[in-house]
Design goal:
Length: 83
């Protein structure tokens, strides 16, 4: 699942991936891979970032990962690029 959102002259691209990493007591889930580019640009501002829920756990659903990635990307744009 991939989505691109526009926020303050930036494109926040969110891709959802299945997290198959194995740790005791943890089943699979989903992570959000966030890429931030200037609006209409092809090059990312910095390397893609992987996000899960708090404490290193993956998201429970694809929708949670998508919205969590979008929220994180929006906060990054607001904190680093908005004045």
């Amino acid at each position: 699942m991939n989505r691109t959102y526009h926020h303050h002259r930036f494109d926040v691209e969110v891709a959802v991936e299945t997290d198959f990493s194995w740790q005791a007591g943890r089943s699979g889930g989903y992570v959000a891979v966030v890429r931030i580019c200037k609006a209409g640009g092809a090059l990312a501002v910095f390397s893609p970032l992987r996000f899960g829920e708090s404490q290193g756990k993956p998201f429970f659903s694809k929708t949670d990962a998508l919205m969590g990635g979008y929220s994180a990307g929006r906060r990054i744009v607001d904190d680093l690029f908005s004045s």
